[in-house]
Design brief:
Elements lengths: L1 H17 L3 E4 L5 E4 L4 E8 L16 E5 L12 E3 L5 H10 L18 E9 L5 E5 L4 E3 L12 E3 L4 E2 L9 E2 H5 L1 E4 L9 E3 L4 H5 L2 E3 L10 E8 L3
Parallel strand pairs: 4-5, 12-13
Antiparallel strand pairs: 1-2, 2-3, 3-5, 3-15, 4-12, 6-7, 6-9, 6-15, 8-14, 9-13, 10-11
Length: about 230
């Protein structure tokens, strides 16, 4: 019994020692900022690819993470969904707290600008241990079967501001209006992260989830955004 309480006290001390480097946003969905590891970790779910209101049509992937339907404007084109208690602007602020400054988002021609990031998923593994999987492994081109390019760079662009009501001057953070967190192609500037891919790539890259790697729809996983070391 003494040994049990000794081990328990050690665990509590170790846990307390980690607390100053972490900040957690409370709510149904969890967002954790780890300032030591320079990461933002978000609880997400594997998204439904065939939405009932679209009568079974499956659209190619254009985003990685967004709110679910109906709040997420691109919920039919995503890999994972996050709880709408987490705003994309919360992730923007979290990245700023790690010392980053947003760049410039792009919609259409041009290349998105911003600090480079690593992005990966933490998936449940059959062994019972969590498994780190990079995004090149979770997407394939549905025509060729080739994986998503490994050398693609994710960038903290930040979102453009939008005016939801044309009769009012008030503007809001665009990604909070669309619900989009990460966009693969510059099909929207209402997002927080974009890749270095230009709009031209959207024409010939028709992406789908890699079901050999990802767990079934609705499975809780973690999305991790990490500051890229220089």
């Amino acid at each position: 019994m003494k040994r049990f309480f000794f081990v328990l006290s050690c665990l509590l001390v170790a846990s307390a020692a980690r607390l100053p480097s972490q900040e957690t946003k409370p709510g149904p969905g969890k967002l954790v900022v780890d300032k030591e590891k320079k990461t933002v970790t978000i609880d997400v779910l594997i998204a439904l690819r065939k939405l009932p209101h679209l009568k079974g049509e499956i659209y190619p992937l254009e985003v990685i993470a967004t709110w679910a339907h109906p709040k997420g404007k691109k919920a039919h084109e995503t890999i994972v969904t996050l709880d709408d208690s987490i705003k994309p602007s919360d992730v923007h602020k979290a990245l700023e707290s790690l010392g980053l400054k947003a760049g410039t988002p792009v919609m259409g021609p041009g290349e998105p600008k911003g600090p480079a990031l690593n992005v990966f998923l933490i998936l449940p593994d059959p062994t019972g241990f969590p498994r780190k999987v990079t995004l090149d492994k979770v997407m394939v081109d549905k025509r060729s079967g080739k994986p998503f390019p490994k050398n693609i760079e994710w960038r903290f662009t930040g979102s453009k501001m939008v005016q939801p009501d044309p009769n009012k001057d008030a503007k809001v953070y665009g990604a909070d209006h669309s619900g989009t967190l990460m966009s693969i192609f510059p099909v929207t500037a209402e997002t927080v992260l974009q890749t270095n891919l230009t709009i031209d790539f959207e024409k010939f890259m028709k992406l789908e989830v890699n079901t050999k790697v990802l767990p079934k729809t609705g499975t809780p996983v973690k999305l991790v955004i990490e500051v890229k070391k220089k």
